[in-house]
Design brief:
Blueprint: H1 14-38, H2 44-66, H3 77-96, H4 103-110, H5 113-125, H6 131-148, H7 161-179, H8 185-209, H9 216-219, H10 221-224, H11 232-258, H12 261-268, H13 270-283, H14 289-313
Length: 321
């Protein structure tokens, strides 16, 4: 049995891509809410190891039914490896601050990524930044400052971490669209899961064997604890998150392969809506006014960047009067 969602694509299907990315973001935002929910009972390393093992098990079960084991073989090994590294760094930075941040704060930091994409295109592709894109960068920076509020008494260093996640996510998006378009989403999910398993196993060993500064593990238990006592609730949530993660990542890879990044960017910001929803469901919390304004500024900046990208790449057409 062959499933088309498992295949790479060279054909754009914008409507299909929008549907896929909305479904993907619903699953991924649910996963992120559950990780934050369980963060006081586990560690980053333990949870990611458990989830990665469950991810791989789910993928191999799916491949057993599809009978298409060639799907896990990369066509461009170098690109897949670099994309795997980028998405691993994204998730490490994104989840490291989970115990200290709200879901909307985490999401807003991550979704600064279109601004980093613009900056990287200037540095590495020699693209020019016009007035509109420069305005978008300023809007996103202002939004980040409103959310982080570095001069307030409530500021925590963890608030910066999702912005680093946004930087690495921008690298992931560029590699995915430019070099991995024909790769199977299953290939990408398999390699990402395997990469997480290896890196988080090494991370757990490093944390367990490295002398840490006094009180460091107390202040950052989710990040600086190697392997806390494993409970059935943590194990069960890890497996459920694996279902959300595999489903979401297969759908989002397929979406990015099926449409231009500039078309999907506005829809991509629906993650912030889902994050706010799950934040209310799980924690009965809503973002404060500065955070809402910051989220709107960041989302507007990303949409403006996408609009200018489309304007720059759409050829002019002329019609008879």
């Amino acid at each position: 049995m062959k499933w088309s969602v498992f295949k790479g694509t060279e054909i754009d299907s914008p409507k299909v891509a929008v549907t896929l990315i909305l479904a993907a973001l619903l699953f991924l935002s649910l996963q992120d809410g559950l990780v934050k929910l369980v963060s006081s009972d586990t560690s980053l390393w333990q949870f990611q190891i458990l989830r990665s093992v469950a991810n791989l098990a789910l993928i191999f079960i799916g491949l057993t039914f599809s009978k298409d084991w060639a799907l896990i073989r990369p066509k461009n090994l170098t690109a897949v490896i670099f994309r795997t590294l980028a998405i691993m760094m994204t998730m490490i930075f994104f989840f490291s601050g989970a115990p200290f941040l709200t879901l909307p704060e985490m999401g807003a930091g991550l979704y600064t990524y279109p601004i980093f994409m613009t900056i990287l295109s200037v540095i590495f592709l020699n693209e020019k930044v016009g007035a509109w894109r420069f305005l978008a960068i300023l809007m996103a920076a202002a939004g980040a400052v409103l959310i982080i509020r570095p001069t307030s008494q409530s500021f925590h260093a963890a608030q910066i971490l999702p912005i680093f996640a946004g930087f690495f996510y921008s690298i992931n998006a560029i590699i995915l669209r430019k070099y991995c378009r024909s790769e199977s989403p299953v290939t990408m999910a398999t390699w990402a899961s395997f990469g997480f398993l290896v890196m988080c196993s090494l991370g757990a060993v490093f944390v367990a064997t490295t002398p840490l500064p006094q009180n460091a593990a107390t202040e950052w238990p989710f990040l600086l604890t190697a392997w806390p006592l494993l409970t059935t609730s943590v194990l069960g949530l890890a497996v459920f998150c694996a279902v959300c993660n595999v489903t979401g990542n297969v759908l989002i890879v397929k979406a990015y392969q099926s449409s231009e990044l500039s078309r999907l960017a506005p829809v991509d910001y629906s993650y912030l809506i889902f994050a706010t929803l799950w934040g209310y469901v799980f924690f009965a919390g809503l973002p404060n006014l500065p955070t809402v304004i910051g989220m709107l500024l960041i989302a507007s900046a990303g949409i403006l960047t996408a609009w200018r990208q489309r304007m720059d790449t759409t050829p002019l057409t002329f019609t008879s009067p």
